[in-house]
């Protein structure tokens, strides 16, 4: 069998290597604590689970779902945008249900890019943007985020030639930065001026700390002309395994993504979509509690890393701490030593783009006792 060469460009060797070493260490009996994944450890919300179970017990819910998602869910998403952001969406033209946010990056890239055209991708940023650009035949052009300015993009120094789209993500994985509405307005203005599509990933929209509020790009007046926003239920509603999200905004791009989806899948299980409706329309009280739990973990991680001589950012949101290592040491070196000497798996910053080389990312999604144990085991880099 001959596999397509495009596969070889994906999955960085570095990631696969660390995961394989962690698996081998576990097989040898090591108690490896993974601070690598952003997979919420908090249990499912009871009302969401009840809605899922009730719908799963109804034979009618086992038929194929509509391609663009259940109308009840599209309407619930539109109501949510109205309540939460004061943004009006047409649930028929401006909302499309996805099988998780990640799926949306693939369809957006395929809907917009031609072979050889470029996409601006945050550096550092969530790796799925770059891989989907590559799979769509596009060229990945790093969009440098400035650590000195709260990890914002410097639009004045950004080259839009040959580009067709921009990916953006605030609250930001891996940096934890939360931006202001004015920063999203700058992104919209840049995209409007250069005729680019803007795909804003709001996966961590509700995971914010110290009373911060994360804006939606669609709150920028006129944003719908150039932008879509990708919504995820994974982190906000502890539904990572259920795989449900949405794309909202620019009706032309939403329609193109609907066409692509209709050729590649037939939508998410109706029962999961009903669980998503329950999540949006049910009590939102868990949000304050979840933020408090993650914020307390953030504080413990940051304090310990400072003690160890690293330079962590104090994240304004997300489920991660992004920490710079002392000069001369790469994230890859430290991640390798952390696994060998402490049986703790952290992510090397390089996985998020070239600028991430001197960083590591630690996830806040392990129970408190395990997190404390991991922090006790970590050591001062030398
Ligand atoms: C920035 C970002 N966007 C999207 C996702 C994936 O979201 P979903 O589970 O809805 O596919 C993640 C997951 O870690 C993420 O970090």
Topology, pairings included?
Layout: H1 13-27, E1 33-34, H2 46-56, H3 71-85, E2 95-98, H4 101-112, E3 118-123, H5 127-135, E4 139-146, E5 152-153, E6 163-169, H6 181-194, E7 197-201, E8 227-232, E9 245-249, H7 251-264, H8 270-281, H9 286-307, E10 311-312, E11 320-324, H10 331-342, E12 344-345, E13 347-348, E14 359-363, H11 368-377
Parallel strand pairs: 1-12, 3-4, 3-6, 6-7, 7-8
Antiparallel strand pairs: 2-9, 4-5, 8-9, 10-11, 11-14, 13-14
Helix pairs in contact: 1-10, 2-8, 3-8, 4-5, 4-7, 9-11
Report on this structure.
With 382 residues, this protein is α/β, with parallel strands linked by helices. It has two domains: 5-43 and 286-377, Aspartate Aminotransferase, domain 1; 46-281, Aspartate Aminotransferase, domain 2 (3-Layer(aba) Sandwich), CATH 3.40.640. The chain has helices at 13-27, 46-56, 71-85, 101-112, 127-135, 181-194, 251-264, 270-281, 286-307, 331-342, 368-377, and strands at 33-34, 95-98, 118-123, 139-146, 152-153, 163-169, 197-201, 227-232, 245-249, 311-312, 320-324, 344-345, 347-348, 359-363. Strands 2-9-8-7-6-3-4-5 form an eight-stranded mixed sheet, sandwiched between helices. It is globular. The N and C termini lie far apart (46 Å). The mean pLDDT is 96. The structure holds pyridoxal-5'-phosphate (PLP). Pyridoxal-5'-phosphate binds at residues 38, 100-102, 126, 169, 173, 201, 203, 232, 234, 240, 245.
């Amino acid at each position: 069998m001959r596999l397509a060469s495009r596969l070889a460009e994906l999955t960085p060797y570095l990631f696969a290597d660390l995961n394989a070493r962690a698996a081998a260490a576990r097989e040898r009996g090591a108690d490896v604590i993974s601070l690598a994944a952003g997979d919420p450890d908090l249990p499912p919300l009871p009302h969401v689970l009840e809605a899922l179970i009730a719908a799963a017990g109804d034979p009618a819910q086992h038929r194929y779902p509509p391609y663009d998602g259940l109308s009840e869910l599209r309407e619930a998403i539109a109501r949510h945008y109205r309540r939460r952001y004061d943004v009006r969406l047409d649930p028929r033209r401006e909302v499309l249900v996805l099988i998780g946010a990640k799926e949306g990056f693939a369809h957006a890239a395929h809907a917009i890019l031609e072979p050889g055209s470029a996409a601006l991708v945050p550096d550092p940023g969530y790796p799925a943007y770059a891989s989907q650009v590559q799979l769509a035949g596009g060229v990945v052009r790093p969009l440098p985020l400035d650590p000195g300015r709260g990890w914002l993009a410097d639009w004045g120094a950004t080259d839009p030639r040959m580009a067709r789209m921009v990916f953006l993500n605030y609250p930001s994985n891996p940096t934890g930065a939360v931006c202001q509405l004015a920063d999203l307005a700058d992104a919209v203005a840049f995209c409007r001026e250069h005729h680019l599509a803007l795909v804003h990933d709001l996966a961590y929209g509700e995971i914010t700390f110290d009373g911060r509020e994360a804006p939606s790009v669609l709150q920028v007046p006129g944003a719908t002309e150039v932008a879509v926003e990708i919504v995820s239920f994974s982190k906000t509603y502890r539904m990572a395994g259920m795989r449900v999200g949405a794309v909202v905004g620019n009706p032309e791009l939403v329609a193109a993504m609907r066409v692509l989806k209709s050729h590649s899948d037939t939508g998410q299980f109706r029962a999961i979509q009903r669980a998503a409706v329950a999540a949006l329309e049910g009590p939102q009280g868990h949000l304050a509690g979840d933020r408090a739990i993650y914020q307390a973990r953030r504080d413990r991680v940051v304090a310990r890393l400072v003690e160890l001589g690293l330079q962590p950012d104090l994240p304004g949101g997300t489920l991660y701490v992004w920490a710079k290592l002392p000069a001369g040491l790469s994230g890859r070196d430290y991640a390798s030593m952390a696994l060998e000497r402490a049986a703790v798996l952290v992510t090397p910053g390089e996985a998020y783009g070239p600028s991430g080389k001197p960083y590591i990312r630690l996830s806040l999604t392990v129970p408190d006792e395990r997190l404390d144990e991991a922090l006790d085991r970590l050591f001062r880099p030398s």
